[in-house]
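User: Sorry, what's this?
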Amino acid sequence: MQRSRRYVLISVFSVKDYLGIILTTLLIAVVLFPKGKLEQLLPLFTDINLDLSLAYYQAILKTNPSNKIYDAIIQSYVKIGETQRALELVKEFQTKNPNDPETYWLRYQLLKTEFFSQKDESQKEKIKAQMETLLSEYVRLKPDQEVLVKVFKEAESMYMPRLAYSTSKLLAIRTKDLFWIKKAYHYSIAFKDYTTSWELVKILVEKEGESWVKEAIKIGLLVGDTKKTLEYAKLFYDKLPAQERIKLVKEIIDSQLTEKNYLSFRETMLETFPLSPEQRLYLEKEVMKRALWAKDYETLKQLILHNLYLSRTSEYRIFLLELALATGDPKFARDVAEKIHIGGEN
């Protein structure tokens, strides 16, 4: 019995001793650790003995009342289910720091807890909308890099894609870091913000080269930047199989050739690519169509004569004759008919 009693006393003493060590270490940390370091250590203390650490939070806040200390303690209260005490602490922080943007972050933490404890899906959506509003306001008031990264991570984990996009775009612009550029690029594609996609993919081509050229051509075609798209296409062209080259040239013609640029576009295409006979035929036919649509009959006549023997198939001869008739000049149409008839069919 005496032995048992001694064991209990030793056990009790050991627990007290252990708690005392934790408390002493915590108080020394409050006094000695520079601002920023204690915030990193606090979660370690609360994991060892949450109740003991939280009992002394007022002392810690008096010595080092930073927003990160508040955040760490609020999250610790949330961890043990003391949401009311966490809310009181948020109000305390807000009273002491009425204009501090960190208030939005602390309120967000509480709403996040409420979100995960809520069973009703419609209520969860309402809470989530409030959470996103708080994070958006937090970024607006304190748009530094640390906050942007923190909010981006939350936005991704909580599936707030618009907020994830806006923060990643800001980070991409500020840091020029490939990680953020790629993140922002993929979000811009998802939101069909192709103007932003184009600016970002051009950076990716500059930094990573060939692996992004195909993507750049696709976006360049969407935004209509013919000159830059053709530059990228020229870099990429020789590396493509013959069938893929035909497809690429056709895509460029179909998306970039207009009733206003047909002559300059034709010239640029001929200078840029070593076009095959099939590609050249497709280009010239489309250019002549645009001249007709623009009612530029004199240019159309020149183009018809220039391309008279580009192909001698019946289909092409009929195409040219129809264009000649469309100019409204019967004599010109008759001359074209005679020339293509004399030329025969191969």
